[in-house]
Protein: Outer membrane lipoprotein carrier protein LolA
Organism: Flavobacterium hankyongi
Amino acid sequence: MNKKMINMKKIIALVLLFAGLTVQAQDATKAKALLDKVSAKVKSYKNVEIDFNYNLQNTKEKVNQTNKGKVTLQGNQYLLNFLGVTKMCDGKKIYTISKEDEEISIASVGGEDDADTPAKMLTFFNKGFKYSWDITQTIKGKKIQYVKLTPISSKDERKQILVGVDVATNQVYNTITIGKNGTTVTLTVNSFKTNLPLAKNHFTFVKTKYPNYYINNLD
């Protein structure tokens, strides 16, 4: 094989590599742009109420559990009911209320108990990830476009996250989180209500409602 042929193959290989990197960059830009639309849509609402299904699977451990939950979000305030526990945030404090244990834990916003809050569930993807365009599926008549998120930090226990976006509404339909331990968590939105007429004290903790509960201040 002469020198010209070798040089030509090298040039072709470099062109193909450059083309591949260009496509990846375009896909990443397109994926981030779609998620930016989702974030902008969420921020345009005064408040949001979501009914959701939460499914946890681990084939190796033979675990397959599905539970329902409900969360109301307004700015940095939220009210979550899930697995028999109520979690409330008034913007300054987080109250975790367990009726079964008759116990209430109170922590400041920004502390350890605030690492992954419901208030971030629709905007968590804004930073800390590499983005790529994934598959499109039609689910229950809805066109769902998936964006794949890969955590930048090697310490992150999540291997990857798929965010399914309803392209007709620019709202999150579901998220599929695949952990490094083999666990897959799927959160699916059943209903998405916005701009509800909430009472002024909707996110206010009223101690007198829980007269016999043990109060655990974590700060």
